Amino acid sequence: MSNYRIQGQTGDWEVVIGLEVHAQVTSSAKLFSGASTAFGAEPNSQVSLVDAAMPGMLPVPNRECIRQAVRTGMAIEAEIHKWSRFDRKNYFYADLPQGYQISQLYHPIVGEGQLTIEADDKSGIPEDKVIGIERIHVEQDAGKLMHDQHPTMSYVDLNRSGVALMEIVSKPDMTSPAEAGAYVRKLRSILRYVGSCDGNMEEGSMRADVNVSVRKVGAEELGTRTETKNVNSVRFVMQVIEYEANRQVDVLESGGTVDQETRLFDVATGTTRTMRSKEDAHDYRYFPDPDLLPLVLEDDFLADCRASLPELPDAKRTRYEQELGLTPYNARELTAEVETFGRFETLLAVTAAKIGKPEAKVATQVANWALSVAPGVVKGLGEEANLANSTPEAQATILAMQDKGEISGGQAKEIYEIVLREGGDPETIADEKGLKQVSDTGAIEAAIDEILANNQDKVEQYKGGKDKLFGFFVGQTMKAMQGKANPAVVNQILKDKLG
Amino acid sequence: MTELTKLGVKAIRDGVRAGDFTAREVAESFNSAVAAAAELNAFIVTTPDHALAAADAADKARADGKKLGAMAGVPIGMKDLFATHGVQTTAASHILEGFEPQYESTVSQNLWDAGAGMLGKLNLDQFAMGSSNETSYFGNVASPWRKDGTNAAMSPGGSSGGSSSAVAARIAPAATGTDTGGSIRQPAAFTGICGIKPTYGRCSRWGVVAFASSLDQAGPMARSVEDCAIMLGAMAGFDPKDATSLQMDVPDWEGALSADLKGKKVGIPKEYRMEGTDQAILDSWEQGKAWLKDAGAEIVDISLPHTKYALPAYYIIAPAEASSNLARYDGVRYGLRDLPEGAGLQDMYAETRAAGFGDEVKRRILIGTYVLSAGFYDAYYNQAQKVRALVARDFEQAWAECDVILAPTTPTASFPLGSLEDDPLTMYLNDVFAVPASLAGLPAMSVPAMLNSDGLPLGLQLVGKPFDEQTVLDAGLAIQQRAAFDHAPEKWW
């Protein structure tokens, strides 16, 4: 239980949150037609006869969309229904050509599942928490109305009409904006791991309907909830909850009642307002779509779906900690995004091969490089950095040189900077620019002998117990070597000589 | 030359193949006959050039020594529920007036691929809703038949009334029909022709304006069982664009036709002996039994106990589906748009649909909307679906005792146009014998049996097991041979 509370005039209130996330299924074709689903195309350029609901047109389920929904269900450890059915949700709107949306009310394809959000003290999530998922069903998206094309008319773009959505319905298990935010982020991460949704909230590939109610702390019964539609970022989801919870507390404390209604979020003001009240609620007249047979999933199909699942975020994070020995922080950062772990795992493999050590032995070095060193250099260069030059091969070469003691950490950064700016082989760069450490014991020993001879007094003092002088000798040696001496070698020789 | 219009599908096909006449001669004959029959109002639009082009293609193929398709040289009428590329497709409604699809329905395409040509688009009850062809926006269709000694225009049945009228009047050798709750069989019975609704899923619904998706099924209407077998063979087939299409090969129904029913059992359902059925109909049923017995079949009494609930269930399920299927006619993308000055979206919907749909269509949309509404869904729609399952189970149990069922097609013969205008319930009763097979998705056919005392045709219905169109056709052929129904309406148009 989070400790998120609204402090009202009459006492403390807690918030109950449920989310319905609509995730656009990654598929080249729509749910029931062969039309393309690419984002950003010319209006009405990706509309089949079926999407435009021409007379006599019929829907035929796209197997790939079904497959993605099943894989998603498996990724949230949910029950997969081998028998499901499509229903029609009937209502009139200009962006809904059929006059009904094909959805799944009575028999969704995916039943109860769950995901875990991680403890995050800073955000007020004291410990890991399991959030229940009620169901996932697949349905068609609607088109889009454009009101700014003509002074008196609205235009309709049907490119999105018929695109497959998964509606992922959580249980009312969240109790703070932070938990809801963590839930959306985790869900997005899972979807992106599975590859069933690109998770692009700006393009509308993922949006949430946010259900919020409040009740006095300790109360058993749930309060009346409102549903705020189509919220398209994690930050906005959290804002909606914050605003709605406070608004509802105000309403209740001033003696009013919360209306069960649908609300809209105003991004500009961060507030919500009534979209339609319960009295105006549609009677959707759901009934089984007679154009479609029930969806029956065979065991082979399910086995293929399961076999195609990648390692999921929780499993990967655990493996990073336990097998690669990474810190919990590094493990979490590296597994949060598909791109991040993808780059990390490639770099890790190439680096381990180059160095000739097992991955676990170099993982920490690679993780620090990937999470902190490399991004720092890239950031410092700004627009000068050409990321195309930053190949796994080049980075692994730098890391290998560092591992062998050929270059220092500072030199690694310098070399990487040149690679980013100009490209080229890091070893050649190191040679040409003289960016290498001297590990030649002869040269270092000669320099040290000279320094010790010129500083007899300090040698005596050191031997007399003034340990701090060791740093002075190291500094002098490095200075004499123009900073290119391998510090480890310098330390070792000095220790030997000074006894 | 006019003699050619007396020919049916098989005779035309064989004659063209043999070179007895050209396909062009046939098409020209029928085009002329269609042009001269405007009084029947069987066609909404005529397409003589389409018929001629297909005929010329058939003639050329023959001259080139190529194999001719199953329907090569046969010009047909196309019910105006099938989308035809570039040819107005209206479902006999105002809301689709002027709509020219940029696609061709699978069934019509199959027919063109088999070499058929199109004489025109046939009138029908609006959105296939009606049993008398009085709900068309383009006017009533008249049957070519009249009661002996009267001039009153008679109903050709519905909804495929343009099809039945045209085929009975010999202005088309055959026509497509669609059957949701009897719309092929009832008009066939009213006009003394044959018509078969195949097993649900045999003919693709892709490109057919939907009435009630779980029931709609296309089929041929022609003047002989053989012609129906040939044409059904050309229409049917798996279509990946229709998720309810049957993934089965199309049998050679024509080739396998046999009127020998030895070893077959014909079921006589006692529940079809309903009050209000004409004595002449009951007599024809008795005659039908005798004919089938004569063909070698054994006659057995069977029971289909839920028969009387079928019609009410049908009039819940079909309107429910229709209310949703017809939501797309909203004035937004195609067809009629009625947008008063300064009006908003809701006004546009209301005005467009008020002006675009006829009364019967509105009645069914209202019924359908009602039975799906919150609070009524379980009492009506769900209950009707349970009844539907029971009706289907009745048939399944009957198949343990018989191979095909014989029953009347309709409770009465045709009636004068206008006589049931204000009595929708009696009108709905026309389909009482047809609807059970529709609810169960079974193949069912009407074949002409005889004329009644008024000189009007009566039909007999055969209902078969799922996918067993063959036995239905075979039994139809046995009746056809014994009934020797060669009556034709006297030309008055």
TrEMBL record, chain A:
Keywords: ATP-binding, Ligase, Nucleotide-binding, Protein biosynthesis
Residues of the Asn/Gln amidotransferase domain: 346-498
SUPFAM superfamilies registered for this protein in UniProt: GatB/YqeY motif (SSF89095), Glutamine synthetase/guanido kinase (SSF55931)
One Pfam family from the record: GatB_Yqey
Lineage: superkingdom: Bacteria
InterPro entries recorded: Asn/Gln-tRNA_amidoTrfase_suB/E (IPR017959), Asn/Gln-tRNA_Trfase_suB/E_cat (IPR006075), Asn/Gln_amidotransferase (IPR018027), Asn/Gln_tRNA_amidoTrase-B-like (IPR003789), GatB (IPR004413), GatB_C_1 (IPR042114), GatB_Yqey_C_2 (IPR023168), Gln-tRNA_amidoTrfase_suB_CS (IPR017958)
Chaperone found in the keyword field: no
Catalysed reactions, semicolon-separated: L-glutamyl-tRNA(Gln) + L-glutamine + ATP + H2O = L-glutaminyl-tRNA(Gln) + L-glutamate + ADP + phosphate + H(+); L-aspartyl-tRNA(Asn) + L-glutamine + ATP + H2O = L-asparaginyl-tRNA(Asn) + L-glutamate + ADP + phosphate + 2 H(+)
EC code(s) of this entry: 6.3.5.-
The keyword Ribonucleoprotein belongs to this UniProt entry's keyword annotation: no
HAMAP family xref list: GatB
UniProt xrefs under NCBIfam families: gatB, PRK05477.1-2, PRK05477.1-4, PRK05477.1-5
Annotated family: Belongs to the GatB/GatE family. GatB subfamily.
Assembly description: Heterotrimer of A, B and C subunits.
Function: Allows the formation of correctly charged Asn-tRNA(Asn) or Gln-tRNA(Gln) through the transamidation of misacylated Asp-tRNA(Asn) or Glu-tRNA(Gln) in organisms which lack either or both of asparaginyl-tRNA or glutaminyl-tRNA synthetases. The reaction takes place in the presence of glutamine and ATP through an activated phospho-Asp-tRNA(Asn) or phospho-Glu-tRNA(Gln).
Record-given protein name: Aspartyl/glutamyl-tRNA(Asn/Gln) amidotransferase subunit B
From TrEMBL, chain B:
One Pfam family this sequence matches: Amidase
GO molecular function terms listed in the Swiss-Prot or TrEMBL record: glutaminyl-tRNA synthase (glutamine-hydrolyzing) activity
Catalysed conversion reaction: L-glutamyl-tRNA(Gln) + L-glutamine + ATP + H2O = L-glutaminyl-tRNA(Gln) + L-glutamate + ADP + phosphate + H(+)
Keyword Protein biosynthesis: yes
Cited Gene3D superfamilies: Amidase signature (AS) domain
Enzyme's top EC category: ligase
EC number of the protein: 6.3.5.7
Occurrences of domain Amidase (ranges): 29-473
Catalytic center residues: K79 (charge relay system), S159 (charge relay system), S183 (acyl-ester intermediate)
InterPro entries on file: Amidase, Amidase_CS, Amidase_dom, AS_sf, GatA
Keyword Zinc-finger: no
Membrane-spanning segments: none
Record key words, sorted: ATP-binding, Ligase, Nucleotide-binding, Protein biosynthesis
HAMAP family recorded: GatA
Record NCBIfam families: gatA
Function: Allows the formation of correctly charged Gln-tRNA(Gln) through the transamidation of misacylated Glu-tRNA(Gln) in organisms which lack glutaminyl-tRNA synthetase. The reaction takes place in the presence of glutamine and ATP through an activated gamma-phospho-Glu-tRNA(Gln).
Family designation: Belongs to the amidase family. GatA subfamily.
Subunit structure: Heterotrimer of A, B and C subunits.
Name of the protein in its database record: Glutamyl-tRNA(Gln) amidotransferase subunit A
Taxonomic placement: Bacteria, Pseudomonadati, Pseudomonadota, Alphaproteobacteria, Sphingomonadales
